[in-house]
Amino acid sequence: MGRMPTLGILYAILLYSSTSFAAEADFANNVVSFLRTHCVGCHGGDEAEGGVALDHYRDSANVQKDYGRWEKILRLINAHQMPPADEPQPTSGELIAVSAAIEAELGKFDCTAEKHPGRVTIQRLNRAEYNNTIRDLVGLDLRLADDFPSDDVGNGFDNIGGVLTIPPILLEQYLAAATVIADRVFENEDARKQVFPHKPDSDDQRVETARRNVSEFAARAFRRPLTDDEKERLFGIMRFAWQRDASEADIFKTVIAAVLSNPHFLFRIEQDADSDEQDGIRSLNGFELASRLSYFLWSSMPDQRLFDLAAAGDLNYPDTLASEAKRMLADPKSVALVDNFAGQWLQLRDVSRLMPDPTKFPDFDGNLRTAMRRETELFVAAMIRENRSVLEFLDADFTYVNERLAKHYGMADVVGDEFQKVHLADGRRGVLTHASILMLTSNPTRTSPVKRGKWILDNFLAQPPPPPPADVPELEEGNETLGSLREQMEQHRANESCAACHRTMDALGFGLENFDAIGAWRENDGKFRVDSSGELPGGRKFQGASDLMQILAEEQKDSFCRCLAEKLLTYALGRGLGSYDRCTVKDCLTTMKEHEYRFSSLVTAIVTSDPFTMRELEREE
Amino acid sequence: MSIHQSRISRRTVLRGLGVSLALPMMDSLAPRALAASSTPAAPQRMAFMFVPNGVHLPDWTPKQQGFGFDLPHILQPLAAVQDDLMVISGLTHDKGRANGDGAGDHARSASVFLTGAQPRKTAGESIRSGVSVDQVAAQTAGKATRFSSLELGCESGRSAGNCDSGYSCAYSSNVSWSSEATPVAKETNPRLVFQRLFGDGKTPGTDASAAKRDELKKSILDFISEDARRLQSKLGGDDKQKLDEYLSGVREVERRIQRTDNEPKFSVDVDYPIPKGTPDEYGEHIRLMCDMMVLAFQTDRTRIATFMLADAGSNRSYRHINVADGHHDLSHHRGDVEKHAKIREINRFHVAQVAYFLQKLKATPDGDGNLLDNSMICYGSAISDGDRHNNENLPVLLAGHGGGQIDSGRHIHVRKETPMCNLFMSMLDHFGTPVDFVGDSTGRLSELTI
Q: Distance (Å, rounded) from C-alpha B392 to C-alpha B130?
């Protein structure tokens, strides 16, 4: 089955690779010599293994045509899948150099040459979306989906169409929930009015009014106008119930349940282009765009204004999309972005399942845990609401604390459970020094500089380190690792195959060593004094977290913005990113730069992009 | 037939509302006096239990083979049921190995556990594994019961971030797959499991209004499946697959409504408190889920179950047995003796919960014997050593007698690289649902009988 080649593990550094930690290199020096040494022995000549011949790449990677192949090569060598384990292996240094060089080649891809908006597998509503949609559809905040099985995560998020399946148990629960909702609507006068707003003036109009109510309700539930045939079928099910002598209430409940357990409600359907349409690409219609906007920014169905704009055909104008996105971000419903996007990007949802060792951290309790998560949520909410520069994720000198968290941070003068905005003391800057993230990236018993460093590379700088080679040597017996954690790690790094990646990971992680495994400030780790200085690849030295954050905000801003753009685009689309999406990411970066890195500029760039506004037929490769 | 409080011993913490459940009179089919001559063979049950991160094999593998082996430290909690189980050493899940797919052993270990299939390495689009052994059985034999199978777990999957090296979290958090593209989600809340199995405990109504409600319900099912079919004809690619899943869910519910029509009349009460929800204490959680499996088997709600004690790569800490470190962190022990000691305590803790389950099955009368006699309970991990992530010589237990078809009470060592799926082939034979192959099976496991 054909599909767009997916992003390689290190698609990461495709753009602006000179600003990443990886070294810059050129094609002939690095790539060609690597291919000659490690690849063309099998992948060369007429009998090339797997039909993949690499010996004709002599001075250019020819990315415009062969981008898919190069992404695959990049992915395989970074995952240590090629060359095969029984062949001589490149050194870590060679790997890093050749990756950077291939990435540089891929960065030369000309985005204006063709359009490929990609294709989203139809998405069923996930639990948050189901809850919010019901809330906005019938006016009752029932949260029935809290009891549904959890949604599987793909590409870091739980709204990925390809991963959201419907096992039988879920269908059962959809049916049960639909019945419960129908009952509740009838018990609640306000909800009843919202679902069935029209009242008959006379008995003669009863049937006509019922039809009108039902088809309007179904149109809102399906998030688009109904066809005449669909209306007839809905009346058919009512007629059936009526013929069985069902009460009026039962007739309406039956039709509500039929709508709420319907695939048109449970899935966000988008029609494919006709195969004879140009390039198999179609622009989404207004109703499809309304749903894309509302599920992206609100995790819920469109409101009446979006429906009206869709009906009038206005949503197809980029200016309208942009202004609607701004309006929606200002709406309280945009808290969904905090819960569902930031909750997953920053993994705040996992804070509740961490169990720090109570003997090591006797002060840790449920209130502190809750406060940790709340701090970061409030921070993200402020970024969105106040449309601040996203670089403040790295270097903000303010945060939100209540008394419990202030005590944890060693701040005086904050009293009570309410959170308030406070200025940070010198040691802390930005989200990476929030207790939530610091705890998420620690072991239950101690800090893990490696986990912290890897987390930053994965989630903030879009430079995920490759997995460790399969045959990591055991620490030698008798060669006891002694000394501070830092000294132990440095002994570990004496092994060059580990050091290549650990140098960066560990440097970032050690910069945060003044924070213990639950994010409290410390000067000492046990009997050892904490040394939070370090040196990043390229020789940039820093002293402690604040210094490190300032360097990241200045020198890694492109990497950070690209990382955020990739994550938010993945979330907005509900699919993993493919080759051509690099063009959209590039556009996002340009727009952000032009608008002082404001959060809304990123959202605007996404909602007006090709992948967000168009749909492409599945392509055969 | 009656399950008494004392037999399914409930801990006080779970003292809840006792409900009277109407049970089908399975025993009533065979009045006591005639039991010896006319008892129909009791149905077979099967369950599969998954643990993550491998085990500390030196304290798992018995030193002797055959009958009468000494239980190693990890297996000691099983003393009371040693004669009812078999320790099987030497099985392999080759498709859990990288085989060119690179890192991601944990994700593979769950997805391969019951499928024996190499999962497609993808973080999002087009997840693919294989049909799992429980679903192979369920698709043939599941129609005999109200629920074709039951999927349970204690962890609800990761809610954020990446699970394992480029594999979607679906691979890490499911062991049961009904098609190569559809993992069967598990239920983690014992209260919801109970309510799904037994409703609110009320005997289903049989009056005219109930019949009318069923009729309306069926009209809804007709309506939505017609809509799904129309929609499916207009969609392409993976979208069609999603509607397939939807439609098979509808069929499953339809089948259940029809079954209710024909189900035997309810007569005898069972006392079991509705679980209040997910307990804080992990052992309690596991044991409650085991209770749900026992109840489901006993009442013939289903005959097939899977249970993930934890998700693949779980980093849960086990503070109640004084292990504060995360399980996954620990499993990368690098030969550290202290870590080994902690790992084996975690392993033993899990096994102690299995022992609870097996003893409960054994204490529950069934046919001429007990439930354990008529069950096959497979417990194990698809990673052998958590540090090396190797997939050969897996830790596997097979408990129960499979209706007398298995010569239990032994430790057997099968030939190197024997596929774990060969065990599944034999289990499917004994279950009465033989197939030509499952996953990467190459034959049967003749060693199950002497």
A: 20
